[in-house]
Write a structure and sequence with these properties.
Blueprint (H helix, E strand, L loop, with lengths): L2 H7 L1 H49 L4 H9 L1 H4 L4 H13 L12 H51 L14 H57 L4 H33 L7 E4 H9 L3 H6 L3 E6 L9 E4 L1 H17 L6 E8 L3 E8 L31 H11 L3 E7 L3 E9 L1 H10 L1
Helix pairs in contact: 2-3, 2-6, 7-8, 8-12, 9-11, 11-12
Length: about 425
């Protein structure tokens, strides 16, 4: 697209150009009319001049044929012979008419000049005033637009993006405004991201410091007790065990916080692949079977898929999905009593995989069920159960980070069921490619 084409897309420039074109056409027509009027005036002046000469000569007795010949003979009027022209010039010089004579001493020529000047001024002056007025209006509107753009850009520079540059026109100027507006949108998004990152970092530091305060205080107390009772082996062993528990809790807290922080910051790239579903769930609960046995609780793995094939698969990141399923099973163990049952079931289809972790424990109160995925959330009914309140938020971040969903259904005193849904888009694509 050429520069002229871009300029003509601007509505204000286009209107100004049309105005100049119309004014130029008007001036051209006015000039033609002025020339035609000047020619008519010159004709009238010449006729009056010849009439005056003819009347004067006739009054002095000059024959009419001589007068007519003198006024109509073109050979004499437009050049004549050299002697004739010289004789005429000498005669005019004698009576004071010469080329250097001022116009004011030639009344007819002076009137012609005055009339022609008045006509030209009458036509040109209004046109010039209109041109100046329209140009002033055009440049004032342009200047107002530039000032508005400058004010907007200044507001962008200080981080205020509530206003936008005008986008109602076309042309180079508005294309520039559009580019600046896109830049402002990018800056706003970057500014919002930085602000969210700062808030996230501040909240994370606050959460970590708050959660570490309790085990650190306990460690300090245990250390002080052991120092004061050096001759009591039973006391030393008792509080050494408590110290180990507190250190384990701190390690668990730090590891969970690091994982969930990486997920929230978007630093984790999930490597989704097709995995054996049975082996994945078995790996997720491998470290929890001993705990369930020691606590007198039953872990059951039960396939509910209609397929008889043991080669059921899931499309996911295996390491992170094992973490999510393990956290849900651990949460079920935390809230299930002795002789309770935690049942893990799954079903697959060409489009999705569903995993359910159900228990017959205490359940979740209705007022708490909407908050259980918040970090460090602990309901009043779970104050005597282990955990730091990060397992469920971490599981939710892992599942949703892979495009899945996690839901919960619970009835107080009857139990809770968490459902994980994974789309098998990658698996279905592989199947279609193979076909």
């Amino acid at each position: 697209m050429t520069m002229d084409t871009r300029l003509m897309q601007d509505q204000q420039v286009r209107r100004y150009f049309l105005f100049l074109s119309a004014l130029s056409l008007f001036l051209l027509l006015a000039a033609m009319l002025l020339c035609r009027g000047a020619a008519q005036e010159a004709k009238t002046m010449l006729l009056r001049h010849d009439t005056s000469i003819a009347a004067s000569l006739s009054a002095q007795g000059v024959p009419e044929i001589v007068i007519a010949r003198a006024l109509t003979d073109t050979s004499v009027s437009f050049g004549g012979t050299g002697s004739q022209m010289q004789a005429g010039e000498r005669l005019l010089t004698k009576i004071g008419v010469r080329p250097a004579l001022e116009t004011q001493f030639l009344p007819q020529l002076q009137n012609f000049q005055i009339n022609t000047g008045r006509r030209a001024l009458t036509l040109v002056l209004p046109a010039c005033l209109i041109l100046l007025g329209a140009s002033l209006r055009f440049f004032l509107k342009r200047d107002a637009l530039y000032q508005r753009a400058a004010a907007m850009i200044d507001s962008y520079a200080i981080g205020c993006f509530s206003c936008r540059l005008p986008q109602m026109g076309e042309g180079s100027l508005y294309q520039m405004f559009s580019a600046v507006d896109r830049l402002a949108t990018m800056l706003q998004a970057q500014n919002d991201t930085e602000r969210a990152s700062k808030i996230f970092l501040r909240n994370t530091i606050s959460d970590i410091s708050h959660q570490l305060k309790t085990p650190l205080a306990a460690l300090s107390m245990y250390q002080e007790i052991m120092e004061n009772e050096p001759d009591q082996p039973d006391v030393i062993r008792q509080f050494a065990a408590k110290t180990g528990t507190a250190l384990k809790r701190m390690e668990q807290l730090i590891q969970s916080m690091l994982k969930i922080t990486r997920l929230d910051a978007g630093n984790v790239v999930f490597e989704r692949q097709e995995c054996d579903l049975y082996k994945l769930i078995l790996q997720a609960i491998s470290e929890l079977t001993t705990r369930a046995l020691n606590e007198g609780k039953i872990l059951i793995m039960d396939r509910t898929s209609a397929s008889d094939s043991l080669a059921e698969t899931i499309v996911c990141d295996p390491a992170w999905t094992v973490e999510a399923v393990g956290n849900l099973v651990k949460n079920a163990l935390d809230h299930t009593h002795t002789n309770g049952t935690i049942r893990i079931t799954w079903e697959t289809s060409p489009l999705s995989t569903i995993i359910r972790i159900a228990d017959d424990g205490d359940g979740i109160a209705p007022e708490d069920i909407h908050h259980i995925f918040k970090r460090f959330y602990r309901s009043s009914q779970s104050s005597d159960t282990p955990g730091i309140g990060l397992g469920l938020p971490l599981a939710k971040s892992i599942v949703e980070g892979q495009g899945g969903t996690i839901t919960v259904q619970s009835t107080p005193q009857l139990g809770t069921c968490f459902t994980i849904f994974f789309p098998n888009a990658l698996k279905s694509c592989d199947t279609s490619d193979a076909s």
